[in-house]
Amino acid sequence: MHISNEGILVILFVGLVAGWLAGKIVRGTGFGIIGDVLVGIGGALVASFLFPKLGIRIGTGLVSEIVYSAIGAVILLLIVRLLRR
After folding, report:
1. pTM above 0.90?
2. 82 φ, ψ (degrees, to nearest 5)
């Protein structure tokens, strides 16, 4: 799979928004805004590769990408929270 430079920028932007949103959804993680944004970028990368392979489709466009990435970031935050104990 080849991702263009614009695709990477979109994934990073969406990851920033998703990280902030995931930080609001999963409270008590203690990572702060920077940590949540980094987890959001990781969640965006995971979601952009994993969800299409699983056949999970919400829709098209930027809003669906933000939803995908927020779900991926929430999952990543919950996993990190479990491993941090």
Report:
1. no
2. -70, -40
Question: pLDDT for 54-67, tens place per residue?
Answer: 887 777 777 777 78
DSSP letter for each residue of 19-55: HHHHHHHSTT---HHHHHHHHHHHHHHHHHHHHHHHT
> What's the CA gap between 48 and 29, in Å, rounded?
24
d(CA 52, CA 71): 14
What is the spatial distance between Cα 63 and Cα 10, in angstroms, rounded to a whole number? Answer: 12
Structure token pair of residue 30 = 């203690």
Burial of 23 (C-beta count, 10 Å sphere; 0-12/13-18/19+): buried
State pLDDT tens for residues 18-56.
888 887 887 765 577 777 778 777 877 777 778 888 887
Token pair listed for 71: 């779900």
